[in-house]
Design brief:
With 342 residues, the chain is α+β, with helices and mostly antiparallel strands. It is built from 10 helices and 11 strands. The chain folds into 2 domains: 134 residues, NADH Oxidase, CATH 3.40.109; 174 residues, NADH Oxidase (3-Layer(aba) Sandwich).
Length: 342
Amino acid sequence: MKNNLIAWEVKEVDFPKNGTIREKLKHFIKYAILAPSGHNTQPWIFSIKEEEVAINLYADRSRALPVIDPDDRELIISCGAALANLMIAMQYYEYIPQIEYFPDEGDNDWLAKIKPIPGYEPDENDKKLFQAIKIRRTNRLPYADDKIDQFFIEKFKALISEENLTLHIVEEKNRENLIRIIENADRIQAANKSFCRELAQWIHPNRTSSKDGIPGYAFGMGDLISYGSPFFIGNLNWGDIQAARDRNLVKGSPLIVILESKRDTPLDWLKTGISLEKLLLKAASKNIAASYLNQPLEIPELRQQVRELFEMKGFPQLILRLGYGKEIKPTPRREVDEVITN
């Protein structure tokens, strides 16, 4: 396995049952860092508090995307996904994750304190979610025509509702309208040179040694094309090409869903990330792939259009496409020691 994929080699049998507190907490974090994040920026940092037997989760704003995500909304959603993995790992190893959100009102970077309390008994669902952490991928390629069973859709809705969010199923009558909004977003973003330069910084050739960002293979690019992709994104107007690609992806996806929160605060964003990752893991456990179509939600006026189209009283946080896709490689990750601070 490539050096920048080593983080994916974590094994459940390596849990240091008789090890130190620090070793145990570090093992949980090894699963947290396998969570998805916007452009694979991995905008999280952890500290281990041995005397408290706790892990602190912080937003790493040095990895922010100020043009794409000026309010750090997607950044905090990404941290919520890492928090979900942390919680699921603790439960698998028979601990109750005790969460305190935003423990210090004066520190907006400190998102959560997590204390593992012994005594949890994982059920089959807990075990399946944990086992799905290592097989979950963001699959940006086209999906097969196979429909997703309604039973699974109801399970997805139930997972989302646990954090007081709503899952909207995009029906056929609204697909064309949503496609037009996504196409508009693609063209607006592609015409924004600052956006393109920022995005290009996180797109890498297939043979990259970088431990973050998105290699070309995640978009289905061959090695040669992947070398030119950062230049292409940063210097050429690719809006029409992306709009046409996204139209085909939406039309060919068996299921399109939107996650809605009642409010639009950092706590809502964090809980959106928790729900997102649980949904993605449930899907992965059933061999259902997923990827994002969040472009409209990154442009205020288009986010409002999505809100009006689906008659939301709350706020759209994520747009997902789900279906059955080919097996793909994972994207790079920083190793656990690189995300732990004192």
